[in-house]
Design brief:
Elements lengths: L1 H29 L3 E5 L7 H4 L9 E6 L2 E6 L1
Antiparallel strand pairs: 1-3, 2-3
Length: 73
């Protein structure tokens, strides 16, 4: 009985480490953002990021502190 509890705890630790590494990788991907002013929704960022003009970019409206800002990728 004791060994099954130990296996369960070890499994939880391994899963938490994997999830922590995955979330760090997502944050690194978002570091490619070029922030360009406040927004309420994604469409607010299309003109600022030049979505329809070469070089074609993707626009996101990301939370930043207590507000939201345009993130041009």
């Amino acid at each position: 009985m004791m060994s099954s509890k130990l296996h369960f705890v070890v499994l939880l630790i391994i899963i938490s480490l994997i999830l922590n590494i995955q979330s760090a990788r997502v944050m690194d991907d978002l570091s490619d953002c070029e922030f360009k002013g406040p927004c309420q929704k994604r469409k607010d960022c299309y003109e600022r990021c030049g979505v329809d003009k070469p070089p074609f970019k993707t626009a996101l409206c990301e939370p930043y502190g207590s507000s939201r800002v345009c993130c041009c990728i």
